[in-house]
Amino acid sequence: MEPISDHLQEHLRILFVGYNPSIRSGETGHHYANPNNRFYRILHQAGLTPRLYKPQEDQDLLELGYGFTNIVARPSLTAAEITPEEYREGRLILKGKIQKYRPRVVCFVGKGVYEQYSGRRGMQWGSQQKPLVEGVVEYVCPSSSGLVRMKLEEMVAIYRGIKSFIGMEMEKE
């Protein structure tokens, strides 16, 4: 199965970084395409998108200044299938993308993604101290996978915190 395309451009407001594409994403060519993945619902409920997007519209989020990539390009059933070698290579490739495109915020969709990228452990949700690429906010959110048992409302609250770094006013609840 082929990797899916990144959606990247310079001056992104947010670059969302996942572990790797799901099998469903690999089949469809769209990010967060598994029907059990809550990614687009979380973004909408957090006030980061004006409406609920579908995975087939992932490229349209570039118009909002949102891009997509993964630390590992190979689709798999779970992140547990990713090898240490794939993470080592992916870490270097990802850092190069961040240096090249310089998004305002890099949102790591899962603590494990950030741990693999940064080599750090024990971080809290939200923005991280001492980013690996100076001038870029590193922001850690829960994975939106349906396998994650965190309540949707808790996840939405964490994602909502990104707004303060990209210049969005908090919308009335």
TrEMBL record:
Domain Uracil-DNA glycosylase-like: 7-152
InterPro entries (alphabetical): MUG/TDG, Uracil-DNA_glycosylase-like, Uracil-DNA_glycosylase-like_sf
Record EC number: 3.2.2.28
Pfam families: UDG
Enzyme class: hydrolase
Record flagged with keyword Cell membrane: no
UniProt key word Aminoacyl-tRNA synthetase: no
Keywords: DNA damage, DNA repair, Glycosidase, Hydrolase
Record GO terms (molecular function): hydrolase activity, acting on glycosyl bonds
Protein name: G/U mismatch-specific DNA glycosylase
Organism: Paenibacillus planticolens
Organism lineage: Bacteria, Bacillati, Bacillota, Bacilli, Bacillales
